[in-house]
């Protein structure tokens, strides 16, 4: 019985897959500001949640649980807000400046003109 189950699994899971990595996309998205925003937001939310929790539940019964609950909720809310703020910054900074050869030649020509004018004593 085990042999039949083993053979069935081998036949079921057998596939012709190449042992290579899939091709990577040309544009790798960076998540630098997402990480920073997430950590900073979670830290700030932790602080705000703890402050609000102490202010509201300091004299209550089971106040330690209530304060920690407010702190955790504040940290989660701050982390989510920081993540989305960092995502917006990452998307804003993701603009690529791809210049075609014609644009580059125009930029080089303009730069050469500006250097020539500066050498001649004329400022911009």
Task: Provide a brief overview of the structure.
The protein is built from four helices and no strands. The protein has 124 residues and is an all-alpha fold. The protein has a domain of 65 residues.
Written overview of the protein:
This protein has a domain at 31-95. The chain has helices at residues 2-13, 32-57, 63-93, 101-119. The chain is built from four helices and no strands. With 124 residues, the protein is mainly alpha-helical. The longest helix has 31 residues, at 63-93. The model has no long low-confidence stretch (mean pLDDT 82). 15% of the residues are buried. α2 (32-57) packs antiparallel against α3.
**Which class best fits the helix and strand makeup?**
mainly alpha
Rg measurement, Å: 30 Å
Helical content stands at: over 70%
Instruction: Provide mean pLDDT, rounded.
Output: 82
Task: Return residue spans where pLDDT drops below 50 for at least 5 consecutive residues.
Answer: none
Globally, the shape reads flat
Q: N-to-C SSE series?
A: HHHH
The tally of strands reads 0
**Share of β-strand residues:** under 5%
Largest sheet: none
Count of runs of 4 or more consecutive helical residues: 4
Distance between the termini: 88 Å
List the helices and strands and how they pair.
Blueprint: H1 2-13, H2 32-57, H3 63-93, H4 101-119
Can you give keywords for this protein?
124 residues, mainly alpha, 4 helices, 71% helix
